[in-house]
Amino acid sequence: MKKRNLLTIPLILLLFLQGCKDDVATTKTDHDASKPIVLTSFYPTEGGARDKILLDGENFGSDASKIKVYFNNAKASVVSSSGERIYAIVPRLPGENPRISVVIGEDSVVYNDHFVYHTQAQVSTVTGNGETAFKAGTLSEAQVYGKYLELDAEGNIFMSWRDGGSFGVARINEQQNTVTPLYQVASAPYPYSNGLTVDRATGVLTVSHESVIEVFFSFDPREGWYPRQRNAKFSAADYNSIVPADRYANFVSYCPYDGYLYTRFRDGKVAKIHPETYEASIVCQGPYGSQYGQAINPAKPWLLYITLHSNANPTEFRQGISVLDLRDPSKGFKRLNAPGGSAFRDGPLEEALFNYPKDIKFDNNGNMFVADYDNHCIRMVSADNIVTTVAGQPGTSGYKDGGPIESQFYRPWGIAVNEQGDIYIADWGNARIRKLVIE
C-alpha cells in the first residue's frame, strides 16, 4: 500500500478554504451613495412579531450593520443582506398599517405597499384565586387584591393594596414562584399607599403615602427592601399653598429625564422631589380632581401623563388622559382624548373614549397601556396615537384567560410593563394578577 503524506491534507484543506474565502470576499458589495436605493417588493406581505421577512431591491450593500429597517417607527432586526435582498425580523407592535422603510447612511426610502400586521395576544393568570384577604405563599397558594403595580429590571412585580382587611406592599416574582409582603398592616396609615415607582437603574422602589403631604416610603433592594420613611422638604410657601383638604398624593413617578420624583395633589399642584435629599418644590398648578393613573413615557421621558376621575375641574379633564411637558411645566396639562367619559370608542386618540380609565404605563417603544376600569378591558395607545383594545371584552365583565377575543377582566385597576413589553394587570374585581403578552 502506498503511504499518504498526512501533512498534505491540512495544507490542501487550508488552500481550499482560503480560496473559498477569497471568492466570498469578491462577492461582497458596498452601498453606492451616489446612486439611489431601489425598492421592488417584500415577502411575506403580512405577518406578526418575530416573523421573517425578505426585502428585495437594489443598492443595499452587503454590510447588514449599515442597514436600518423600520416598520413605521418600530425598528426591525436586520439579519443579513446580499446587496439585492435584506433578511429582517418583523418588530413588535409597529402601529396601524405599517410602512416599511430602508435607511442606509443619509438615504431613506419607503416601500409603496403597506405591510399587514397581525397582533397576537394571550392573557394568563400569574397569581390569586379570587379571595380578597391577602395571603403570602407560592403563586398558586397566594391571595391578592392589588390596586397598583410596578416592575423593576430584575422581573420583580411590586403590588400595593388597601382592601380585603389590610394595607401593604408585596413583591411578586414568577421565577422564584413567590408572593412576599414587604410590609403589611391591619389598617392605615402606615403607609396608606397607592402609586408605586421604580428607578430601574438602581432598583429603588418609592411608594406614595397619599394622606400625609410630605411622607413617602422607599424600598432599596440593597437593604432587602426594608421600608424607610422619607419626608419631602417643602418651603413654607409651597407647603401652605396646597389646599389642606386636598393633600392627597395618590402617585409618585421617577423621571429618567431629570432624575427627579414627581407627585400630584388632588388640588392639582404638581411637586418635583429630589430622590436623595427630598427637597421639594411646586412646579405646576393643574386641574383639580382625584387621580387614578400616572406614568412617564420612556420614549419621551420629559412627558408626564395622568388620568383623572369624574370629579375633575375644569370638566374637560374628566375621565381622560392628560399630559404635562416637564421641560416647561408652567404651560400646564393638555387633554389628549375626546371629551366625555363613561363610553367606549377606539380609533385616533383625539376621538377615543374611556370609561373610568385607571392606571397607565408605557413600554420602551412609547406604547401606552390603559386599565379601562368600567369597560373591563385593556386598551393600547400606540406611539402614533391610535387606540385599540388588546384584551378583554368592552362592556362585558368576567374572568377568563386566553386570546384577545375570549379573555375577560372585571374592573382592571393597576398596570405595569416589563423590559420585554409584557403587561401585568391588577385585575381588581377578580382579585388576581394577570399577564398579557402581545406580539
TrEMBL record:
NHL repeats: 408-433
InterPro entries per record: 6-blade_b-propeller_TolB-like, Ig-like_fold, Ig_E-set, IPT_dom, NHL_repeat
Keyword tags: Repeat, Signal
PROSITE patterns: NHL (PS51125), PROKAR_LIPOPROTEIN (PS51257)
Leader peptide range in chain numbering: 1-21
Residue ranges annotated for the IPT/TIG domain, each copy included: 38-117
The keyword Repeat is assigned to this record: yes
Entry protein name: IPT/TIG domain-containing protein
